[in-house]
Amino acid sequence: MAVQVSYLFGHGKRSHAIAEIELLRARLAELRRRDPGYKVFGSRAHRYQSAPVGQAELDRAEATLGVPLPTEYRRLMLELGHGAGPYYGLWSPGESLDEFLGRAQEYEAEEGRPVRPAGPFPLAAADLRDAEVSPAARDWPCDGCMPICHQGCTFWSVLVLTGEFAGRIWDVACFVGFSGEWLPARRPPGWWEFGMPHPRQLPPLPSPPTLTEWFAGWAERCLTDLPEQAEPGAAPDTAR
Which ranges carry the Knr4/Smi1-like domain (predicted)? Predict the structure, then answer.
């Protein structure tokens, strides 16, 4: 009986995860309908289109990183994919690796220390209260994480791979060299036209949010900001 209960519990978790992915897929379809002119920040880069990745690419990423990828990230990549998402969109595992390894090589060359993706992430629950008030100072790149999204300039969204925050998202900015300023990821921006009444405020995301909470929080922000119907004559912009 215990085995049966365990199986049913596991099945329930999988069903919930599938429902989350389907909800994200539906929200992306709604964003394509309501934002044909790509008003949302960064949306012109991905156009709300996602491409699933294969198991082999995820396995290669894990082998290179030397640490298992969070289950939620694997599921999102396999079933929804890279492309659409907050800021300029989610990178594929290969793109995340390229960004991380490039910066890690620069860091090791200049600082004389390797960056270890399987090492302990340098922020813990004890740091969270202070980080809510002002950014935590830790180098970037650092151990125990990988970038999954570029926010523009020298800002990244980072997926934690190890420790108590594994599977959760942090924001990091580098203004000088490798000196990173870290915050639990905030709700990513949508669209707001300056001078117009701001759309309703939304509650903050959990601190720090899971990958799905972060992605869904972005979609909610965008759909709150955009009009229910696309503006007349706002045909999709095909210019790259």
Answer: 52-217
